[in-house]
Amino acid sequence: MKTRVSFLLLVICATMNAQKMHFTMLDEVKEANISGTPEQYDLSIESISYDRTYDYGVITLDKKKTEQFIADMKELRSVYLSYVQTAKENNVESYQREIGKSDFRVNVFFSIGKGYKGYINTRSKLTYKFNVGQFLTGSSETINILMINTDRLISSGRSTVVSDNHALLFYNIEEIDEFIGR
User: Fold this and answer.
1) Which of 33, 34, 67, 77 shows its CA 20 to 30 Å from the CA of 107?
2) What is the pLDDT of residue 44?
3) Which domain holds residue 57?
4) What pLDDT digit, counting tens, does each position of 156-170 carry?
5) Using an 8 Å Cβ cutoff, are 154 and 161 in contact?
6) 71 falls in which pLDDT band (50, 70, 90)?
7) 39: closest CA among 19, 57, 58, 64?
8) Is the pTM higher than 0.85?
């Protein structure tokens, strides 16, 4: 009983300290939450799922990993600008390249919609990719996308629960800058 009360108080305190921030990803407003104290905060970012079964996901990072992720994002920003310029100068219509991988692992919560029972994967790394192509149905516009993908997700508690990758997608420099600035 004492453990349950302590856990409940911890959840209430974490919720009270949470800050909600919003950023745009593919013209859709996504939510990023920062919770905890400034000394040990967590960053939680809604992600897009490639899996039709597990459509909702959240990537979470602790303070140390958040600082490294933001540093990675700043570096990816300059790589993205360079790749976009090169793609435009050479009239590239289709291209994909892995830019790198995170040096750290992240936790990923995935579930069937918000509010449903979810699963946690604690062993995923992030893969950074640059893509050029015509991704929108019926559009001939070439888009340059910065993709941040998780590994394939396997539940830490039930190895039979598996989900395809989750991703953060940024298709212009303004979205990257907005995310970094939050």
Assistant:
1) 77
2) 82
3) 2-181
4) 777 777 888 888 888
5) yes
6) very high
7) 64
8) no
